[in-house]
## 1
Amino acid sequence: MSSEYQKKVVSLQRQMGLTMENTFLRKLPIGVQDFESLRNDGYLYVDKTEQIHRLISTGRYYFLSRPRRFGKSMLISTLKALFEGKRELFEGLAIASKPDFKWAKHPVLHLDLNTNKYDRQEVLEQKLGESLSQWELQFECPRPDLPFGMRFENVIKKAYEKTGLRVVILVDEYDKPMLQAIGNPKLQDDFRSILKGFYGALKSMDGCIRFAILTGVTKFGKVSVFSDLNNLRDISMSRKYHDICGITEEELKSVFKPEIEELAEENHLTIDECLAEMRRRYDGYHFETSVQGIYNPFSVLNTFAELKFGSYWFETGTPSYLVYLLQKHDWNLEEMSREKASAEVLNSIDVDSTNPIPVIYQSGYLTIKDYDTRFKTYTLGFPNEEVEEGFTKYLMPCYIYRKDDNKSPFLIDNFVNDVESGNTEQFVKRLRSLFADTPYELVQNLENHYRNVVWLLFKLMGFYTQAEYHTSDGRIDMVVKTPKYCYVLEFKLDGTAEEALAQIQDKNYTLPFAIEDQQIVRIGINFDSKTRNIDKCLVSSHAENS
């Protein structure tokens, strides 16, 4: 770290009122989810208390869904410290100057469901039982003979009576049991029944409650956990609270100015180039229309700590439940990346639905890209490069199978070389080998499976790829562009490669690309359902744009 850079950091930290033995060593809160320890130990904090003050001043019951590692636990912890009256922790923050906020020590019931693996009904029952027993001991009201919901009601009532102050209820990752039971209808139904009765106390004990919020990745609706909680205000897609978690562009530039300068210096970039790279990789989450994008905080902090750009968020967890839904319902992956949906679809998950899009959106793998005011529909897409790359890399092994990965001809760099050099014959050979090892039980709809694998493959290679490309005379199955070539591909199942190639020519599929610089290559591929592989491939290359 250069001495000039250290001086800048020291100066900025002093302006921010930070005092540490080594002032230039700023502490980034990676993995720190407790607000009190964050403040006491001198970690950086992106001040969200202005939004929090608005939240607690204008309502009582809330629900918020955000992707994992997006700051939900820190939000809950901040609310806990706030309602416990720990004013000293908030010195210098926005809420400290609000005269209307009363710094009273409310009884706080904090339930964190993120710490267990819910593979059996007993695990959830034990978790709820332990939390209730702890609260019953604290407020001297043991009633282990009652159902969970009634015990919760009794705790709320007794806490209010003993302290004289209404209760604050904070639930972190309420949906963890439900998500882990996807694919097990019986277990999910058991979890739903238990949680529905437990959370029902939020409505029945309204007079004893000062504030309550449930957070999670997803929102299960209809006959699920929320069916009776019509007093909860869902702020997941609220314009007022779109930035209550995560990092905005303004916050990135102001709070992390020294880190941006050091990252730029380390990677030989200008400040503007560094910000553009951050934006491309980690920005782009939109939880409403016409609002600024939000950066993934986990990726931002890790980038500054490691001084290099990486896929930090995606590498911390694998979305196995998402892959299960995509494969179970045989979803077209390319369509998923440009899906259209209504607010009703995005806001709630029906456990019996065959549509995986709400889960994928709420989990953060898709985000809002556009909104049609006439038809009231949202267009979705990947939020940024980190998510797109990570998701496609994770999906590919789930759609193919290799007997021996160590000797596999399926290597991305080989495919890239073939496509970039125009060696379509070798590319098809590799593709045929790829399909040869796919076991029968892995594939449901053959045609959709082939499209998904080819689309994933080209996306992983980093080329421009678009399936179902619309023209004035039809739809091209796939278009792939490299600096030198524009590939126009048509697929057939149990037809002929000649028919596929003829369709490209007869419908003038290459016409939209005639004015571009690349050489156009037409490829007709026929898949055979009996051999479950490529039957024949025909290639026609013609420099019609020269």
## 2
Amino acid sequence: MLKKLASCVREFKKPTILTLLFIIFEAVLEALLPFMTANLINAIEAHGVQMAEILKIGGILLIMSILSLCCGGAAGFTCAKASTGFARNLRHDIFHKIQDFSFENIDKFSTSSLVTRMTTDVTNVQMSFMMLIRIAIRSPLMLIFSIVMAFVMGGKLALSFVVIIPLLAFGLLLIGKKALPAFRRVFKKYDRMNESIEENVRAMRVVKGFAREDLEKEKFGTASDEIRKDFTKAERVVALNGPLMQLCMYFNMAFVLLVGSRLVINTGSIGVGQLSAMLNYGMQVLMSLMMLSMIYVMLTMSAESAKRICEVLDETPSLKNPENPVMEVKDGSIEFTDVNFKYSASAKKFALFDIDLKIESGMTVGILGGTGSSKSTLVQLIPRLYDTTEGTVKVGGVDVRDYDIDTLRGQVAMVLQKNLLFAGTIKDNLRWGNPEATDEEMIEACKLAQADEFICTFPDGYDTWIEQGGSNVSGGQKQRLCIARALLKRPKVLILDDSTSAVDTKTDALIRTGFRSYIPETTKIIIAQRVASVQDADLILIMENGKIAAAGTHDELLAGNEIYQEIYHQQTKGGNEDEA
């Protein structure tokens, strides 16, 4: 785990190493300051010194203090650069890893959990890294230097540290052991809280439409309160660190003052300077221990974050390119052979089974079926969003698993059931289909998708800003923009997953007419709820319970298939009301 996280330092190794060097110089200088001061006090006490000598030593102390301050300031600058750079690289690696995930990998973690890992968890690890390269180096060095100098200056008086340090170490280990399980629970509950927020924001219209704000507030409040309880429990344990440190600090001060004063007054075995140095070194030792305890607490809290991050980085994408991938899709022909599919190995039921299907390049195929009949699942196997559990899917005569994934998906355009637009202008969104598309090409695609008319009503036209998720355009407008985006791709296979449900039948018919003229050689697969959307297709599939229940043309199915007959008569009963 540490090796994987350390690999994210990369180009920030230099500021990391410089931080360590600056910290070493700072620690050495701070350890020498009480020594120099003690010698000056002893010299004054013993036989007095001239003012010139005092000024000389004072000047040296001032220079040492300034150098120590400069080293500390430089260490702070390089540490900030190294830690923020480390966090940037860590987020970069996680994000790029997620881009390689299949839907199966994403389903394993959940979207909300991945967001938490890239935000809260990375921040925790960044803080730990910052403390490790700065405080975790400074504190042990100061601890060692101070203890050594304390024995040099105070002799047996420094034995108080032999009692304090083991006591403190034992207390810190006990605190960490009690706090870690609570922190572990907290991060899992963060995932659930983020999931609640994400769900609420995405479904805001539904929440307000059903006046369920109070229920959502209650759900969020419950999730938030559970985090509060676990954090409170963990912080109660961690808070014991402060009293423990204070106990050790004041015990040492009392011991040094009591025993040291007696030695100065009664035996003269140590001087006032040595006593002063012992107090300073004692304070440095305890401050170093306090810093170490803070590091220990932070590492305890971030250990779970580091583990969660490494789970993402160690995850193996379930979909991979073959060793010698096919880099060209010949045509849009599609063939399913003995295909069975389930979403996970542990699933008891297949989502698709006994699928045998052959589609010639350039055909228009319609798919009808009830909710949960696995229509979307079927088409998701074509661009290899999932791999078949059994059997093969071929595009252009080649098994989809033999293609370079980007090459395959570059020739298969999908307009999903949940249409998504990104924050940016209309042009920015359209160029997802073709980054090099000219204004003329975008206008042509939008005209075919019946989007140009409403775009021209906007004051800024094609430069109109689209809010995140397309929240400032209607559902039908969003669908038509997504269709135009797919048309610009000029794919070998175009899949429309119920993507004209928000437009009227007349517009739907005009869009299909545009397909025939603009992409005649492209295989078009249209999942729809309306018979009118697929009525003129070369082949219509009826899906039921994960199987192809029937296949044929409109006339064939209308003559011999009860399911199709029922759908058709239900939708046409009373005349073509939609077209009126």
## 3
Amino acid sequence: MHHYIKIALLLSICLTICFIAGTVTQVEADTPIADYTFETIEVPGVNFLEVSASNDFGDYAGNTRSPDGEKTIGFTLIDGVFSTYDFPGSQNTYFYALGNNGNAAGHYKDSNGLYHGVILEKGELRKYEFPGAAETHIYGISDETGALSGNIVDAAGVTHAFSGELTITFPGAVNTYGDFVNAAGTVVGSYVDADGMFHGFIRNPDGSFTTIDLPTKPNLEFLFVNTITDVGVIGFRAKAVNDILRSYILLPSGVLYEVRLPGSVITVVRNVNQDGSIIGYYDLADGRRHGFVGRPTPHPNGDDFGSTFSMHLSTGLNMLSVPLKPTVHTTARSLAVKTGATTVIMLDTANQQFVAWTPNAPDDGFPIEGAKGYIVNLPHARAIVFTGTAWTNQTQIAAAPLATIPSQTWVFVVSGYLEGIQQFDDYLVTVRNHRTNAIMEARVRGNYFAAATADLNYHSVVEAGDTLELVVTDTNGNIASEKFNFTVNAANLENAVMTVTLDSIGTPNRNRLLQNYPNPFNPETWIPYHLAEGGPVSLSIYDTTGTLIRTLTLGYQSAGFYQSREHAAYWDGRNAFGEPVASGVYFYQLITPFFQQTRRMLILK
């Protein structure tokens, strides 16, 4: 079940705090100091709000209490709407991950005390079990791939980390706990060694491991690594014997900060965002639990959270350049995930053609490079933070985003799939606007296509009510489909995308005899036709008196489109004796076991 409450985030007084610093493997005595400005996340009437996840758009997920206070249930806080979720029949339901697409994930405890993964998609909960696992705990979702991460318990009761389909066991560990994976495929988590001691780990993309320890606190009850950003900022929490739970931020430089919100009993950091801000929750002495966002102040010594660049993108179409080189390979999909775009478009300067990508594509699309402009369409205005380093060999400064008049759809994409068991790669989809007669084209890859058009003077290229005609041709330029017609609606304009499905490619929906070409002709002509089913085919030619002039026996023909000169019936203008016929009107009749049709043509000499 779930409930919806409109709320506003209540901001607390800005608080300045001090930190303890260290390295990857030990805490130094000489500790630099950093500042955070905290904002409390509160929901009116809710005294227990355990914020455990956030996305790039300022949305949150986590855990709260059921209305009767008897159990823990998951919640999301998306676009100011608070919603709670309780998996049917569960003892408790927990959320620990939130994607940019609004999907949340976590796990629930069943009536037998076993844990199972749970995923929230489009407002509905569904169970997820890692293949072969006795229990599944989800703690992360990759925005880049959609892969889940967390830990599993096998049949022998041993805990292992997992990321996507990969199972991870730290060498020599008794138990291995996974939590989060970043865009580069770096996984973070924790493990218990043979002596029962807790350690954090980083599993690098090459399969090697790095250990995270706190030597100044040798008697740890636990140490759990929660998160890692794309630039390598890590968040984790630990508790020593006879001490409170403490949270830490570990920078790529090896400097370690402890994070504690003044006045709190404990402060738990659950996520570090790409801009270095942190989210989590804190407890007050009276037992209330609140979420928080902490925003860092750069330290004078430059020991900060990496280079960042913020920009505001408006609702609708925006043109932008990526200002910093990301730490990992970035694609159209990556940019769409970061911005929430319905489409990403680039100009192929070599071919002077716009190339589009939409989230339903089977691949990640084109690479995102420096000093190049890209067009994105956003359903909602958003502040976007880019992280990375300066581009090399950049010929121009990255441009600020350019937003245009919302009523002007100056970019439009038609995308979709060709259905069928056949692979249609390299087929060509041609889209024609009946009103403007403008044409856009796209090659098919993985049976997917995305045809784009744009007017860089920001004039509308399509309007509501326009009829778009789509035709598919094969790799030899032969017609491979009927003409599909679709009408543009308001939702298409809002998304700058029309998504369609093209079926029955290669097979006409009915038999048809078409007009010969050229017509009039002298001395030869081609006669096109469509066959909805295969069979023996012949073409008979008559004069105006009904006398049979010539029969063209075409043999067995499979269902298909016979329109091009290579496939259409050919008549050289001669009768059955090989003599040229006279000028005048003639009739041609297509005959199959299932169909007959006659049309007229004209020879002019």
## 4
Amino acid sequence: MEERQSGEMTETEKSPEAKKPKSKKKYVLMVFLLMFVATLAAAAYLYYRGIVYYRTHFFPNTSINGMDCSDMETGPIIDALERRIDSYGLEVLGRDYKTGESDAVLGNIVPEDIQLRYVGTREAVESLLQQQNEIFWFEAHLNKKFQYFLEQEMTFEEELLDSTVRSWDACKRKNMQRPEDAYIGEYSEELGGYEIIPETKGTNLDLEKAITLITEAVSAQDVSIDLEELGCYGDAAVKSDDRQMNRIVDNANKWLGTKIVYDWNGTKVTLDNEILKDWVTIGGGKAVLDEEAVGAFVKEQAAAYDTYGRRKNFMTTDGYEISLPGRNYGWKTDVEGETEELIALIYQGSQIEKEPIYSISAGQKGSNDIGDSYVEADMNNQHLYLYQDGNLVLETDFVSGTMVSSWDCVTPEGVFGLLYKTTDAVLRGETYTTPVKYWMPFYGNYGMHDANWRGAFGGDIFITNGSHGCINLPPSMAAQIYQYVSKGFPVVCYYSQGIPYIGPPAEPEPDPEGQENPDNPENQANQEAVTE
């Protein structure tokens, strides 16, 4: 027999308690296994129940056309979607038939007026449910969202829509107004010019087009439509922004804005809107300036303020006042030239101060236009004075036209303006050719010049042995006078005691120098001195 070691037990010696821990473990394992199987079975059952449930219900987090349809069956959804049509309406905008103002409400289309309803809603909702895969219902519980948008088709009675629209006041023919074109109004005193009267929009609708567009808007479920924006109204052919019409008004108003302040021979004359409003008109598709009226205005002012050729009062050196014809002296407006310039200024809309264009000017402005610088020839006393800026700078005797020939030889009386001056001239007549050093004509061929053939000047020489009309001067004095005078310089000739004309003598007296006088008034109209 084998010996047992000390302390070792045999199998038979082990107690039942030694097997107990192993059995307990098996029990726990079995319990867990059963619980697991039970959980799986429960989960499977719940999953299956979800599959069955979501075959007839929409998943959580589902929306259709913005409406929450979570866990809903199709029936309530269909009812709710179709009830939405009750709140539908189409607002139709256009022009107020009374005032023509935009954005006026012409009328509203509501479901009951045209028997409006949805069609195909049930089929569409049920189709969405069929597309839903119930196997994946649990995904919806993971906050996955399902959003659907159905295009709900509408059906309505188009005849009812037609009659509804035609019943609106704005759509009745008797209330429609045709548009009126913009046009240029009459001259406005308040504005001082012309203005464009805006077009009238008009309220005449293209009713057939409007009904077609409203029908389409209802079908598209639009909530608003503007018939004006969609071109359902007839518009004016000419509008206030018409370029040609604005150009016409702008031109007319520019001309009317002209302001010319004249200094017309010392008198202020203003040409402005008060006068221009009668000259500027609009007609024939353009702005028109009455140029003839402009010319008449210039002539009128010239007649009022020109002094050329008019009688003038003159204070002689001897201190008495006489009245003399103006002859060729004074202020004379160049009517044609000033008319042309004024027309151009009006077309430019100018605002300026100016003098008119003068063809002939005088020494100073005003009716007494001789000024302080002039030649004064006293025919009775045969004495000449020359004033410069009011100062007497020289005086001399002279010989003027003879009194015993014809009236053509009598030196004319009046106020003259020097025509020009020149040196080394040749005076030509029918019977003579005579050179002079200084030639200063003031009226036709009447003039002042040196006369070196004369030995004496002044006194009564002129009565029987005067010139043919010119003023004969001592050569030295002619030279000095020549230095002072210029074109337009006033020459005043007068007979303070009357013209001592005694008629032609029985026989003409010979020239003291043995030659004829070089002055020949008989040829004044066609003969002038010629320079060599």
